[in-house]
């Protein structure tokens, strides 16, 4: 136990003191701070953005006036309508538009052209640049409203009738629970959105945690092997103590990184200039299910240990750094597979494939966690998944320990499976 | 009780026998020489002694007991392939290794300082290994092996890659450790070190023990085959004496290989007939000659 603590302390202390760790952590923290400031920047750049001024040529049917009224009625105002007297001839009109655009106070001009086959005229937009997605959709939308208003007026509907016509469709979700009784969904859309985002972030965190620390573990062990200090280490401390000391030490390194990132994001959010921006996007962090956080921690640790022992085993059978990349490839694919199942499963959490994968050890940390977050698996499903995961940690931990015990002393070419099996027998471990 | 005793220890890798029925014992205050060409089975034997690999057959006893966990507290190992953490400060990594072997952090620091003084490099305390020359890295490696004052010390090619001054320094340290009572298992290719340090030796050849015992007795058991002769004037006709196999003329003397020790007297007479003899010796075979004789002939 004392040896284990010594190994953990040494692994942690050395990793944290390396330049590469300091640099990567600093970069990650800066990125996190920048990401946390996105709402603030968004507000900064859009806040004092005056709506664009659009010149609209007046027409006989008063569409231009209606457009102005509809635009002014909206909040925020999508654009300012500047009513322009139609000079009549094309040349004069073009001249007027050119001077208006060149002077810069008008972004573009809209001219209505009557179409014989349609009740509503075609709108033509003139400017010296592109229309832009935002302006195009708000212009189309507002014109649509104008058109509706005109048609309604022609139909002579009562106010009640037009209200009914425009009433939005209401869609409520209800869920059948085990007893078959319908009950109202527990989560309102806001909570669902928060869960969705949270699950997304946590799956990425789990993926990064496993990938980065897993690589760290494997490369540390290979480095010790290739620098031959392994020869001294294995005579000083039991290989298993060393392996688990490394795994736990590296886990602490990973946790330190996560804590630093979390702290950076948290402090960015509570800074006065950010508080307003965060409030503006209207996500209530209080609606985060604390149980979800607990599940995250559980799945993080279990997933980490499952992968870490395997990374350690892979690191132990490679004797040169150059060979490590190739050797960890299968592991990389496993982690990537789990990651993609988790990410793409968010949209279809109850698809049979995703449900099946939430019981398979290497994929379950992400798949089951994702299901808990965005869907509602029965308690026994969660328990079964956790049980399988815990059992496979024991199994793969044991296997990795055996491989490690043999692997750290094997030099030369990477042993194949048969050689490993024979060596394991020979070592009587 | 003997610190280390091997009895008919055998190790096989698949069909290949790496070590075949080796037996020897090392007592406290003794440096035991393990000799052999490359691939003879020395490193495998040492790894078994260290408990890194288990013998397939035979038994190893440490202080009269089979392998027990606390052995790492009393054993030290200097591997042939040297290795330390290149980017970690010397004080940090030596402290780590010492603590793994049960030494407190405080004692480890104190001992390290003492050893660095002993090797006349006290300013290496907080340097990194990669900043040191190869010879100085060797010193640090040696300190790593002895920082916990081991009872059983395994030195694999302890002096390779060192300059003569440092070899002497390290040799003195090894002798000190021996005099303090350590049982030292020592492997080397350099026969002059064995002659100077070892009381008993085992010569391995292709996994088998070909020669074993007390160094002096081994030397006695091999016939004296060389005559060293130094004279005032050149001696002619040495080759013609029956029983003389080879005459090598060095700067100041002749070295003459003979088939029987009795021939030596004839050579002396022959030389005295021609002039003054300054030096005459029927010398013991060197360990080098013994080694080559034991191993040789079937060298690849």
Percentage of residues in strands of chain B: 25-35%
N-C termini distance of chain B: 41 Å
Structural class of chain A: alpha/beta
What name does CATH use for the topology of the largest domain in chain B? Rossmann fold
Tally of distinct domains of chain A: 2
Using the alpha-carbon principal axes, give the shape of chain B: globular
Task: Tell me the β content of chain A.
Answer: 5-15%
Largest interface: A-B, 25 and 31 residues
Largest sheet of chain B: 6 strands, mixed
Helix-residue proportion of chain A = 55-70%
Low-confidence stretches of chain B: none
Number of strands of chain A: 6
| H/E topology pattern of chain A | HHHEHEHEEHHEEHHHHHHHHHHH
Principal-axis shape of chain A equals elongated
The biggest beta sheet of chain A, please?
Answer: 4 strands, mixed
Low-confidence stretches of chain A: 180-185
CATH superfamily of the largest domain in chain B: P-loop containing nucleotide triphosphate hydrolases
Based on the structure, what is the oligomeric state of the protein chains?
heterodimer
Radius of gyration of chain B: 23 Å
Question: What tags apply to this protein structure?
Answer:
heterodimer, A: 429 residues, D-Maltodextrin-Binding Protein, domain 2, 2 domains, 4-stranded mixed β-sheet, two-stranded antiparallel ribbon, elongated, B: alpha/beta, Alpha-Beta Plaits
Spell out the blueprint of helices and strands.
The complex is a heterodimer of chains A (429) and B (300).
Chain A lengths: L1 H16 L1 H18 L1 H10 L4 E6 L5 H11 L5 E6 L5 H14 L4 E6 L8 E5 L6 H23 L3 H8 L7 E3 L5 E3 L4 H38 L3 H7 L2 H32 L1 H9 L9 H28 L3 H7 L1 H17 L6 H6 L6 H11 L4 H29 L9 H11 L2
Parallel strand pairs in A: 1-2, 1-3
Antiparallel strand pairs in A: 3-4, 5-6
Chain B lengths: L3 E10 L2 E11 L3 E7 L5 H8 L7 E6 L8 H4 E4 L11 H11 L4 H14 L15 H13 L5 E5 L7 H16 L3 E5 L3 H7 L2 E6 L2 E7 H7 L4 E6 L12 E6 L4 E5 L4 H12 L2 E7 L3 H9 L5
Parallel strand pairs in B: 3-7, 3-8, 5-6, 6-7
Antiparallel strand pairs in B: 1-2, 1-4, 8-9, 10-12, 10-13, 11-12
Helix pairs in contact in B: 3-4
């Amino acid at each position: 136990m004392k040896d284990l603590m010594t190994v953990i302390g040494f692994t942690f202390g050395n990793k944290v003191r390396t330049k590469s760790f300091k640099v990567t952590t600093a970069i990650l923290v800066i990125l996190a701070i920048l990401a946390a400031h996105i709402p603030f920047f968004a507000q900064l750049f859009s806040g004092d953005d005056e709506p664009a001024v659009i010149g609209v040529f007046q027409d006989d049917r008063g569409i231009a006036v209606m457009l102005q009224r509809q635009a002014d009625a909206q909040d925020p105002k999508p654009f300012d309508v500047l009513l322009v007297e139609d000079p009549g001839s094309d040349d004069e009109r073009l001249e007027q538009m050119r001077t208006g655009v060149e002077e810069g106070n008008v972004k573009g001009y809209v001219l209505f052209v009557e179409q014989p086959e349609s009740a509503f005229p075609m709108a033509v937009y003139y400017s010296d640049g592109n229309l832009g997605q935002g302006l195009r959709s708000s212009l189309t939308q507002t014109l649509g409203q104008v058109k509706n208003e005109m048609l309604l007026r022609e139909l002579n509907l009562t106010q009640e009738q037009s209200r009914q016509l425009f009433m939005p469709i209401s869609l409520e979700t209800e869920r059948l629970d085990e007893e078959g009784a319908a009950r109202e969904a527990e989560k309102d859309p806001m909570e669902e959105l928060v869960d969705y985002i949270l699950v997304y972030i946590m799956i990425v965190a789990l993926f990064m945690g496993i990938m980065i620390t897993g690589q760290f573990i494997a490369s540390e062990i290979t480095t010790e092997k290739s620098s031959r200090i392994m020869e001294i280490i294995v005579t000083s401390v039991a290989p298993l103590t060393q392996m688990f000391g490394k795994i736990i030490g590296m886990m602490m390194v990973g946790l330190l990184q996560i804590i630093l990132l979390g702290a950076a994001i948290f402090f960015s959010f509570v800074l006065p200039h950010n508080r307003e921006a965060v409030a503006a996007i209207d996500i209530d962090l209080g609606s985060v299910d604390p149980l979800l956080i607990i599940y995250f921690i559980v799945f993080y640790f279990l997933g980490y240990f499952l992968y870490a022992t395997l990374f350690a085993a892979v690191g132990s059978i490679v004797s040169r750094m150059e060979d490590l990349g190739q050797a960890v490839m299968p592991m990389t694919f496993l982690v990537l597979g789990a990651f993609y199942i988790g990410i793409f499963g968010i949209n279809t959490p109850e698809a049979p494939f995703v449900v099946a994968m939430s019981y398979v050890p290497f994929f379950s940390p992400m798949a089951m966690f994702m299901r808990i977050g965005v869907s509602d698996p029965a308690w026994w499903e969660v328990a079964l998944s956790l049980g399988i995961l815990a059992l496979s940690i024991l199994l793969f931990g044991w296997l990795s320990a055996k491989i490690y015990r043999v692997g750290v002393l094997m030099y030369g070419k990477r042993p194949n499976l048969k050689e490993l099996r024979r060596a394991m027998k020979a070592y009587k471990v | 009780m003997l610190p280390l005793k091997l009895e008919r220890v055998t190790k096989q890798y698949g069909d290949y026998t790496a070590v075949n029925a080796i037996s020897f014992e090392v007592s406290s205050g003794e440096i035991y020489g393990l000799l052999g060409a490359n691939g003879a089975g020395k490193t495998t034997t040492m790894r078994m002694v260290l408990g890194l690999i288990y013998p397939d057959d035979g038994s190893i006893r440490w202080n009269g007991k089979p392998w027990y966990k606390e052995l790492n507290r009393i054993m030290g190992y200097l591997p042939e392939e040297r290795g330390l953490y290149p980017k970690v400060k010397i004080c940090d990594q030596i402290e780590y290794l010492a603590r793994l072997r049960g030494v407190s952090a405080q004692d480890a620091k104190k001992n390290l300082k003492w050893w660095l003084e002993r090797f006349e490099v006290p300013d290496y305390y907080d340097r990194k290994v990669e900043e040191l020359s190869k010879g100085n890295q060797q010193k640090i490696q040696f300190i790593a092996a002895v920082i916990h004052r081991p009872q059983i010390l395994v030195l694999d090619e302890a002096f390779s890659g060192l300059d003569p001054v440092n070899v002497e320094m390290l040799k003195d340290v090894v002798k000190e450790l021996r005099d303090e009572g350590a049982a030292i298992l020592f492997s080397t290719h350099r026969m002059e070190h064995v002659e100077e340090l070892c009381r008993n030796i085992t010569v391995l050849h292709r996994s088998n023990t070909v020669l074993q015992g007390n160094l002096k007795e081994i030397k006695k058991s091999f016939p004296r085959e060389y005559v060293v002769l130094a004279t005032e004037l050149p001696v002619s006709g040495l080759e013609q004496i029956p029983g003389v196999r080879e005459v090598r003329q060095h700067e100041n003397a002749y070295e003459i290989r003979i088939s029987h020790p009795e021939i030596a007297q004839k050579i002396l007479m022959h030389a005295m007939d021609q002039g003054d003899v300054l030096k005459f010796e029927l010398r013991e075979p060197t360990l080098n000659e013994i080694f080559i004789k034991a191993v040789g002939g079937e060298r690849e």
